[in-house]
Design goal:
Two copies of one chain form a homodimer. Chain A is of the alpha+beta class. Helices cover 29% and strands 40% of the residues of chain A. At the A-B interface, helix 2, strand 5 and strand 6 of A face helix 2, strand 5 and strand 6 of B.
Amino acid sequence: MALIPMELSRIVISEINNQQVIFLRETGGRREFPIIIGIFEATSIDRRVKGYDSPRPLTHDLICSAVELLGGVFQDVTIHRLEEQTYFASLRIRRGDELLELDARPSDAVAIAVSVRPMLAILVEEDVLEQAIAQEQPGK
Amino acid sequence: MALIPMELSRIVISEINNQQVIFLRETGGRREFPIIIGIFEATSIDRRVKGYDSPRPLTHDLICSAVELLGGVFQDVTIHRLEEQTYFASLRIRRGDELLELDARPSDAVAIAVSVRPMLAILVEEDVLEQAIAQEQPGK
């Protein structure tokens, strides 16, 4: 199955409820879909995209430094499954010749993708992208 | 310098502001001090202490699974420095013969300490404990 490179195109944060939204859009394309995430993860993504710095490691920084400490290098993020409106992501980690996969929620995976430099590619399985778009346009 | 084993004795969560408090108390003793932490970390600690389960890995779970995936085992948490009212912690990770140290905020370190089974020991440097207590009782 093909993996489609996508980019974080928007973050919509509402202080009123606990459902924040990130939008992923196909790189160089027009297909886009939203993922509902929590306020903590949304804030974490937002501050990294804006380049805010923190004097102490925040929770997502800690994941990055733990992986680095143990000799791993984040390679990319894949979103490879959609089941009952839940997206499943993996963080792929390279260590020497090994390629390891870490099961994650898309919110954490994207927060890490935008934390490391250079930012990680976000790859979405073609069929997940199609399902996601169909789900957003039930009448079409 | 001696490391004093301590336990998480209280979590005080207020929805009104962003300053939540955890209290650490000397195991088998009476010395106790508070650490101010964020609402996300406080909620994360609280749900783990209460044994709430999540169908998908939450952010602190992801740190645990990343370390496990890369062959590390969390050994304990140390709180080894207090500077300008900021506590500095380390998560100590064993991998084979190596003992590695991961710099962390106490909130993340304690969230991980209560996430892994068996829970990790929380060790506070004697001089940090003394400073912490002196700071809480400025008039004494």
